[in-house]
Amino acid sequence: MKKVQLSVLPWRFQLLLFLLPLLQSCNGGLLGKKDDPTPAGRKEQLSRAWKVDGTLVNGQPYAGTEFAGWQFDFRKDNTYTLMTGTQSGQGTWELTSSDSKLLLDKGSQGETVFTILQLDASRLDLEITQATAKNGEVKIVLQLKPR
Hints:
This protein is mainly β. The protein contains 2 helices and 9 strands. It folds into 2 domains: 8-37, no CATH class; 42-146, Lipocalin (Beta Barrel), CATH 2.40.128.
């Protein structure tokens, strides 16, 4: 096999040899796949209307109706409305702890912190630990879907 020296090749071909790896690298490069959508930020994913689709208590499906009909509407201005079927309330929300926690009504008597277990376009799972007199600490997961 005969060796070819770069200095003998035309300058356009040399430039192409130099640029080709650059065009194919760097997050898909100019020649790579670019049709993958950029995932929305957590705030954008959360900012919508959600309804409770299921509930887990200590990891087990809960058949009670206390959370049936609950609906949250998280708005981009960091306000929310909660409708429980018979009552409704409003407040503020923010993401904390690297967007892994949802804090409702910061600094108020009703301040509530949920851990976000799952958040995507089709599902929001929120976990909260509640102390009860009868059962001690109970982990409740609200499984929500878009309304």
